[in-house]
Specification:
With 343 residues, this protein is an alpha/beta fold. It folds into 2 domains: 182 residues, 3-Layer(aba) Sandwich (Rossmann fold); 136 residues, Phosphofructokinase domain (Rossmann fold). Helices cover 40% and strands 18% of the residues. The strands form 3 sheets. The protein has a 7-stranded mixed β-sheet, with helices on both faces. A 4-stranded parallel β-sheet has the order 7-8-6-11, sandwiched between helices. Bound molecules: 6-O-phosphono-beta-D-fructofuranose (F6P).
């Protein structure tokens, strides 16, 4: 079988581990031929590809980023894009395409599957918002990087009796904010799922400081929004793929909290640092298991599917179920775990 592989959307640690597992499983177990499309769906539309084999994948397991490159190009938004992509796959004799991506790439994969392309999806995104899988590749690493940073913010915050606002990525969901906030002992976590009210947050902080406790850590997801009518945010820039370019809410929150509490507030924006560097052991193992399962699915002819982690098992779910909606934080989880750390 000839198997194509692509990585699309924002990069994350663990992509190379997944590519390596696909190549090894396909080569060793099935004797397949592999082709890697460059820069996500762009490589399929433009027929820009490289051969992949075990030798090409040596040494990439611990490396962040993706040896294939990535982009957010959507063939459905490029004139003739879908027909060109299908023509590329036919010309190259690709019988299975493994698409490693997040919400955007997997949504395109679902549409391509409907157009007859034999696709298997592999979920990756530091945001962990792909439906139907407990974890996506990259999330664990992003949380680990955030925790290490917040631990460092704690000690400097204590020395100066400051409030430290730490902004993390999380466009539509607050998984990174909540998990890193919990793991690093943040007092307050602001997530996109629950609009925040800064005067209430300020009261909690002042109460903590009146009790003599200092070093308040506030973790805010970049996509967090104030309650309607409480705070005006500047409009976000739009990038070439029609995505809002987020980042900056942390500075606004810190400025407002300083005004409301009269305490010194500082901001740290972790941004793309969360997406770079070497993957954790968890992400390496997850990416490897996903890669192996995706090749097995291709050989079973289970197309239009995505590999998913459910509990400790890897299962196949339909791309329809994976892409119909985002996996948001459960409000009960947010309430249950954040309430006790306010004081
Ligand atoms: O989807 C993952 C993610 O890291 C989001 O958390 C973030 O909003 C977005 O990508 C930023 O992507 P880029 O800077 O590559 O456009």
């Amino acid at each position: 079988m000839r198997v194509g592989v692509l990585t699309g959307g924002g990069d994350c640690p663990g992509l190379n581990a997944a590519i390596r597992a696909v190549v090894r499983k396909a080569t060793v177990t099935f004797g397949d031929d592999l082709v890697g499309f460059r820069n996500g769906w762009h490589g399929v539309v433009e027929d820009d590809a490289i051969p992949l084999d075990i030798a090409r994948c040596r040494g990439i397991l611990p490396r962040g980023g993706t040896i294939l490159g990535t982009s957010r190009i959507n063939p459905f938004k490029v004139p003739g894009g879908v027909d060109r992509a299908i023509a590329t796959l036919e010309r190259r004799g690709v019988e299975a395409l493994i698409a490693i991506g997040g919400e955007g790439t997997l949504g395109i994969s679902r549409q391509m599957a409907e157009a007859g392309v034999p696709v298997v999806g592999v979920p990756k995104t530091i945001d962990n918002d792909v439906n139907g899988t407990d974890y996506t590749i990259g999330f664990d690493t992003a949380v680990q990087v955030a925790v290490e940073a917040i631990d460092r913010l704690h000690t400097t915050a204590e020395s100066h009796d400051r409030v430290m606002v730490c902004e993390v990525m999380g466009r539509h969901v607050g998984w990174i904010a909540l998990y890193s906030g919990l793991a690093a002992g943040a007092a307050i976590v602001l997530v996109p799922e629950e609009p925040f009210d800064l005067p209430t947050v300020a009261q909690h902080i002042m109460r903590r400081h009146e009790k003599g406790r200092f070093a308040t850590i506030v973790v805010v997801a970049e996509g967090a929004k104030p309650k309607a009518g409480t705070l005006e945010l500047p409009p976000a820039e739009i990038d070439q793929y029609d995505h809002e370019r987020l980042g900056g809410i942390g500075a606004i929150v810190a400025g407002e909290l300083e005004r409301l509490t009269h305490l010194e507030c500082r901001v740290t924006i972790l941004g793309h640092v969360l997406r770079g560097g070497t993957p954790t052991a968890f992400d390496r193992v997850l990416a490897t298991r996903f890669g192996i399962a995706a090749v097995e699915a291709a050989h079973e002819g289970s197309f239009g599917t995505m590999v998913a982690l459910r509990g400790s098992s890897i299962e196949l779910i339909s791309l329809d179920d994976a892409t119909g909606r985002l996996k948001c934080l459960d409000p009960a989880l947010i309430e249950g775990v954040t309430r006790i750390f306010l004081d």
